[in-house]
Amino acid sequence: MATLLDIGVSALINTLSAIVFLLAFALLRIQPINDRVYFPKWYVSGSRTSPRRSGNFVGKFVNLNARTYLTFLNWMPQALRMSEAEIISHAGLDSAAFLRIYVLGMKIFVPITIIALLVLIPVNLSNGTLSFLKKDLVMSNIDKLSLSNVRPKSVRFFFHIGLEYLFTVWTCLMLYKEYDYVASMRLKFLASQSRRPEQFTVVVQNVTHPPGKSISDSVDHYFQTNHPDQYLCHQGVYNANKFAKLVKKRDRLQNWLDYYQLKYKRHPNKRPTTKKGFSGLWGETVDSINYYGQQVKELERKMTLERQKTIRDPKFVLPVAFVSFKSRWGAAVCAQTQQSRNPTCWLTNWAPEPRDVYWRNLSIPFFSLRIRRLVISLLVFALVFFYMIPITFVQSLANLEGLVKVVPFLRPVIETKLIKSFLQGFLPGLALKIFLYILPAILMFMSKIEGYISLSMLERRTAAKYYFFMLVNVFLGSIVTGTAFQQLNAFLHQSPTQIPRTIGISIPMKATFFITYIMIDGWAGIASEILRLKPLIIFHLKNMFLVKTERDRDMAMDPPRIDFPETLPSLQLYYLLGLVYAVVTPILLPFILVFFSFAYLVYRHQIINVYNQKYESGAAFWPHVHTRIIAGLIISQLLLLGLLSTKKAANSTPFLVALPILTIAFHRYCKHRFEPAFRKFPLEEAMAKDIADRISEPDLNLRVYLEDAYLHPIFHSVEVDKEELMEVQVNEHETPIPDPITSLSNVYGYHPENPQHHTCELGAKP
Amino acid sequence: MATLLDIGVSALINTLSAIVFLLAFALLRIQPINDRVYFPKWYVSGSRTSPRRSGNFVGKFVNLNARTYLTFLNWMPQALRMSEAEIISHAGLDSAAFLRIYVLGMKIFVPITIIALLVLIPVNLSNGTLSFLKKDLVMSNIDKLSLSNVRPKSVRFFFHIGLEYLFTVWTCLMLYKEYDYVASMRLKFLASQSRRPEQFTVVVQNVTHPPGKSISDSVDHYFQTNHPDQYLCHQGVYNANKFAKLVKKRDRLQNWLDYYQLKYKRHPNKRPTTKKGFSGLWGETVDSINYYGQQVKELERKMTLERQKTIRDPKFVLPVAFVSFKSRWGAAVCAQTQQSRNPTCWLTNWAPEPRDVYWRNLSIPFFSLRIRRLVISLLVFALVFFYMIPITFVQSLANLEGLVKVVPFLRPVIETKLIKSFLQGFLPGLALKIFLYILPAILMFMSKIEGYISLSMLERRTAAKYYFFMLVNVFLGSIVTGTAFQQLNAFLHQSPTQIPRTIGISIPMKATFFITYIMIDGWAGIASEILRLKPLIIFHLKNMFLVKTERDRDMAMDPPRIDFPETLPSLQLYYLLGLVYAVVTPILLPFILVFFSFAYLVYRHQIINVYNQKYESGAAFWPHVHTRIIAGLIISQLLLLGLLSTKKAANSTPFLVALPILTIAFHRYCKHRFEPAFRKFPLEEAMAKDIADRISEPDLNLRVYLEDAYLHPIFHSVEVDKEELMEVQVNEHETPIPDPITSLSNVYGYHPENPQHHTCELGAKP
């Protein structure tokens, strides 16, 4: 058991490392050369195209303005200055709602911390007289401050039970208010949004079609029959594998062409040549620019043909369609109702926004989908509880003896004492480290197999899996000894009332561990998040070796987005820790508070300056956040119940039984009250927006607006690149600075401003 | 442990009692005097108005045709003769689907019985040689035929596991086919139905209205805004308590009037008189007919005023409305979508058919509803597990000593030895008997508090509660000793893997008990169902003392309906027993088979001749039936798992773990595949019916058709009775024979044939 002093030392170390990170960040961020690493969001949003710089050449790379060094912590007030409304318009609702999670954490835990510390520390210190308090606070084992210090059968447990009630009520109140606020924020956001394709569009899966009829005709006929007044048009989804191969080949050749053109530009006196054979190693020597230019042209001709074929030939059409309606009302109706008498066919759902569509999963048949979900849930269960088995196996292989056998010539090096002890400490953990590093990717892969059709949904599913993993392997795994599998086995052979006891009894003992965990993973981890060391290094490496044009530099910038699948679960773990320890070892709470407020600052800064979201789901993750905080609440209640029952507090324990039931009732109420706002779109809202639209733009041609919104991005990219290519060929000696919005559109095939930009003949339009 | 011989004796007794019931039934049913007891359905449907009779006076009461006595069992083939389509048109889809449950039982259990008996009996008989088989079959303890006879660690358990797989697959296959069949039956039924008000109507609960505006105006405005093309009209719901009181008083006075009129008719020379004071005991003496006639007239004038006031005055309007649309499509859209941005307001659902509405629950606010459901589920839990506590308390009071104290003058009688022993055997059980008798009523009362708005839903919820009660107290209660509360306590202190073992191990030992249970509750119970002894006695008592007119005689007939809340759960219990014992003690299966086929015959007869359904839900209970059979399947798998693990069949047990998982996956698939057909109404179907309607009746005035369909029946009843009254007054000396349909309509306020019949001015119509 650690004393408060030990924890103080650990806190000092972690605070220092966090401060070092922050100092490094403060110094690095004001260097113009790093501007694209620390402020990419401003480049993407187009308000900055080159770093702020001092006049001379050196000033291009290093900040020479001494005054700015004095105010090196000024990013903090800057981060706080932007209002919530500005954040929503700057970074989207997802980011703003993400920040609300931290605010909610502070709202919940500030009063809890104050009350818990004021009431419980005196109660828990066994002799309870204040004269000894000071000495105890410094010297005592941290357990002295926790519930385990209270003698069995004590009446003092009524303090703990009372506070658990108080904290539950407070948490629920805050959760309710926040859910209400976020739901209204979402509705306001959706209402204030300008016209967007997804507001009019529904994705229809499992389209059936009679043998003689094309899918496109069936869709047209079906919706003209069943939604005669509202149906506008539809966009088929094509199997573009063959076309995608051509695009890939074209991109490769284009790269070569660019390379040789650049080379020629630098040395205009020598035209580059190349060999026609395999990898340019042999064969006839030709002029490179001409050769690749011709090849690219040839390929693009082929691509145009293939594109026409893919879109026109019914056998490339998949049994899925994006069906658009004349009004938001029509789309809302279609998305929320059952269409066919066979509920596995003609399944309608709101279309994700075009950037958010995960194209590969669109055409999975219903039956296959059910099987996939079953298999994946079994696999996730196995992964969570049995992941140690393969890792132990790999570890047993990757030991020193095995290494020596594989690389015998390294034997002298390996057997050096220093290196040997390093390797022995390092190798066994390696397999586990690698596994934990790739775990989010594995979970994302699993979610993709499950067949969800939008990126946002995939991320939410991954987050759910990751939370389950953390709950079992980090939270329970730290409390109960043994692997998750052993725990599972033990729990299966214990009675349901015994399990909370087994866990509850070790809860107070692990407080020190979790305090350290919070400081390392929370404090130092967040500080390293703001430093962005890895992207910084990668950006400069790319800048040195790969970047040829400004466009390349923008590509190298690669602004990240909020990593929901990893961030949300770890956030929820902090909530769980806070709620569990609130009445057991309240001394843990200030550490969580520091985490919440520090992380809030950092993420606010990152959202304003760094992150660039790939999609906008309108805070669709909030119901999950709410549910998991409730789950944390219930876990904390059950564990307190278990802990108290080991304390023989038989008189007081029954009072706690009502809490989980009431909490579940509260959750069900909230679910009914708020969740529809996140899953459905009320007709009232849809109609109001339709009417407003009709008044402001009575003669809008919606069909043209929606025409290509849901065409697979690969088809868009061709058109755009073709034009760009022509542009490059026309003014060959000017380096065009592309608008970042446009270049993004290339990637995602999304053109909110000018959807009519690329008109193309589609075979399947009514 | 009972031998086969014991069981044979028990079977003989129960078969004999069943045969006695059947004989009595066969004799009683052909007596003309009982015609209205055994064939009320034909009277209700209007195809029979008086009993078939032989010519003379005696023939009016007793069947003198000797030939009919010879064919006294001919109701069986008669019951089978009607085809399913005829049953649907004769008695509705609910009844037809109810019979399918028995057919499904036979389909599932006939092959299972044959295979289980052929394979498992030889396997279970330990010596396994066929020479001893015959002797064993007669003499052996019934346990010899069950799984418990197999030695621990035997490889023979693979037979049981294999068969469990086979039976599960077979059951799932049958369930799937049946679900498919019933779902398509339902859709066909809905499609073939003629126009009905509920197809166009949606019930809207939790209507909000701004302070200055009436509810009726708000509803109009809301739906005219949000469903401008589809909205037709709406019907408010009124708080008619005051009006209902007047109706009650009028009915009482009307009864007196009728009584005196009849009296006068019998003795035309003496006009009856009455006293005006309290209970007719003192006060001025007046002519009865004139006095009551005047009073009734006066009251009816008041009622007309009150009626106008109730309907016109906005303060009597409840925040609920039945909103009707111009097409089925419009109603389907409104029922399936979310209307308001606050998901607790403007809640829309399909309106139940007018007969099916439970008016009292219509206006419960959303929040109160959530609280009610929570409280009731806690109460049901308490009722199921702790119901023995109050009963034991009452039992301890109601013993002989207590009785003697209350009625000391009966002491000599009570202390007679014979009577004393009878009372001692009888009294302790009395409280329990009374409780079990009123249990369905208690559960129905609880369901009503839960706030469901249709009778069919109330009955389904009651059935669910009753099934839970039976599962815990009949099934588990018989297997594990002790009260449900003791079991619960024991289970809470056992590990999840221990519970199936504890139960599993006593499963084979209880086979005899359940065989007896099936014979008493199933065989003899069903035979007594067809005899209808209680209604027979009540009918004749009423006929002797109360019946004055033919209309009274029809009222006394009181045709019952299928008692879903009790029948469905006990049926599902038989499924559970069959599935659990299929591999454990297969000798139980033939008894279940006999039950299913016998009950099928009896209920077919009853549905054709006796039952008259109060509402038609379109087999909406089928998903529940399906779910509970699946639950039975999973329980049987878990118990087999537990039983085998006590047999140390460690090699074979793991093979069973996959079964529950696969069964749950199957269930989830079925739920997605079929349940929407029972909960929603596909737009495709709605549109098809709309188009067909538009072609066949292009100039239908739907508004007139729907006008009063959803007016509270109490308002209808007045109009009808008023007219009837006039009719009575006009042709005073003729006894009118009312059409049973009309008299039913009076009760339920439902006029499918002539809804324009009673036009009335409503204040709140657009």
Automatic annotation (TrEMBL), chains A, B:
Residue ranges of every copy of the CSC1/OSCA1-like 7TM region domain listed in the record: 372-644
Segments passing through the bilayer: 12-30, 108-125, 157-176, 374-398, 418-445, 466-485, 573-603, 624-646, 652-670
Residues in CSC1/OSCA1-like N-terminal transmembrane domain copies: 7-178
Residue stretches making up the CSC1/OSCA1-like cytosolic domain: 199-361
InterPro entries noted in UniProt: Csc1-like (IPR045122), CSC1/OSCA1-like_7TM (IPR003864), CSC1/OSCA1-like_cyt (IPR027815), CSC1/OSCA1-like_N (IPR032880)
GO molecular function: calcium-activated cation channel activity
Pfam families for the chain: PHM7_cyt (PF14703), RSN1_7TM (PF02714), RSN1_TM (PF13967)
Chaperone listed as a keyword: no
PANTHER family: PROBABLE MEMBRANE PROTEIN DUF221-RELATED, TO DEHYDRATION PROTEIN, PUTATIVE, EXPRESSED-RELATED
Sequence similarity: Belongs to the CSC1 (TC 1.A.17) family.
Name the record gives this protein: Uncharacterized protein
